[in-house]
Write a sequence for this structure.
């Protein structure tokens, strides 16, 4: 599974999570901004989408817009891999980032009670 497999909605969803993870320690580092901006090209975001992501880098996306259970099952691994990269983008992982990442990973696990 690659970024090319994501539709427009899932590309923006991924960027909402990237920005939300960048904000996990309440401060977006330059390296995290650089990481997010590199994803622009990889995700082939248009100008409007890029402007939205820039706004999320200045103010985090609303918490209601970053629900891990909304991520389609077939895309969960790509989201998890990307969040691991954004958390490590500044070469330091603080406890809030680690806690957010751990919770995110737990929420991505399939419910064993679902078919």
């Amino acid at each position: 599974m690659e970024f090319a497999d994501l539709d427009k909605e899932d590309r923006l969803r991924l960027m909402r999570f990237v920005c939300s993870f960048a904000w996990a320690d309440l401060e977006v580092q330059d390296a995290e901004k650089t990481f997010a901006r590199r994803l622009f090209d990889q995700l082939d975001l248009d100008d409007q989408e890029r402007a939205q992501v820039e706004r999320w880098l200045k103010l985090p996306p609303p918490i209601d817009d970053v629900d891990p259970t909304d991520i389609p099952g077939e895309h969960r691994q790509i989201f998890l891999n990307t969040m691991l990269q954004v958390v490590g983008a500044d070469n330091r992982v603080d406890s809030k980032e680690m806690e957010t990442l751990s919770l995110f990973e737990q929420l991505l696990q399939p419910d064993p009670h679902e078919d």
Notes: The longest helix spans residues 8-22.
